[in-house]
Amino acid sequence: MLSKNKIKFIKSLQQKKFRVESQKFIVEGRKGVLSLLNSSFKVDEVYCSEKISQDYPEILELQPYVVAENDLEKATGLKSNKEAIAIVNFHESSEISWDNLILYLDGVSDPGNLGTIIRTADWFGIQQIVCSTDSVEFYNPKVVQSTMGSFSSIIPVVIDAEDFLKTKPKNTKVYVTDFEGDSPNILNGVQAGVIVMGSESHGVSEVWYQSEHQKITIPSSAESNAESLNVAIATSILCYQIKQG
Fold it and tell me: Lesser CB count within 10 Å: N end or C end of the chain?
């Protein structure tokens, strides 16, 4: 049985203030919790229903507390969750793998977009994601949920664009998404470098234009009336393009 205090604590982790104070976040649902089995995240506690423990016995490796589905429903931040909830410790890094492909997300504020980008990057084998300090928090429950378990493959790095550029090796190529640039075909087969994705409202920060970086544009149809392309969709297109080499 989940105590009232434990339910209260789990529900408090829906708010950034309490996540930061405790340095913990929540993972909800069977798929997300099971993804923790092969991750480097340190899991504090797992709660699951008896049905999940029987149907997915591998979850027992996480040493879960088997509780009533009703208790899970009381603690969840989702519309419905009768499966599993995990309390997980923050796991961040300041290390950037400059020899690999890096997605730099500049001011991406929508949690659904960040979650989808993480899931897409995982699909295409891009494991280095760096977020600006004004991007949505990696541990936001909506971000974690929308990754469908792919969050566990990513160790987040958070650094503002100016500091990122100061640490970047001179020979590391930077590709900045822009309304005026070259065809994304130039990304075919790229093995290393930085792909910069900006917010749909404001694009990338001005700091990216203070140096000569390669600009790339996803062309629109001549009949299009759309002002911009959703950043998660744009990222998916570029990730696919990279794999065409």
Answer: N
Q: What six digits make up the tokens of 124?
A: 């295409």
Q: From CA 88, how far away is CA 44, in angstroms rounded?
A: 5
Q: What are phi and psi of 236, to 5 degrees?
A: -60, -40
Whether 225 shows a pLDDT value over 90: the answer reads no
- The C-alpha atoms of residue 199 and residue 107 are separated, in whole angstroms, by 5
Encode pLDDT of 181-216 as tens digits.
Answer: 999 999 999 999 999 999 877 789 999 998 889 999
Separation between Cα atoms, residue 199 and residue 109, nearest integer Å: 7
Dihedral of alpha carbons 128, 134, 137, 143, sign: negative
Closest CA to 85 of 31, 40, 140, 154: 31
Token pair in block for residue 198 = 């900006």
- The span from the CA of 169 to the CA of 133, in Å, is 21
- State how far the Cα of 203 lies from the Cα of 100, in Å rounded to an integer: 24
Question: Using an 8 Å Cβ cutoff, are 140 and 111 in contact?
Answer: yes
Do 8 and 124 meet the contact criterion of CB atoms below 8 Å apart? no
- In this prediction the pTM is 0.93
First to last CA, the chain: 54
What are 77-106's pLDDT values in tens digits?
998 899 999 999 999 888 899 999 999 999
The candidate with the shortest Cα–Cα distance to 148, out of 127, 122, 124, 125, is 122
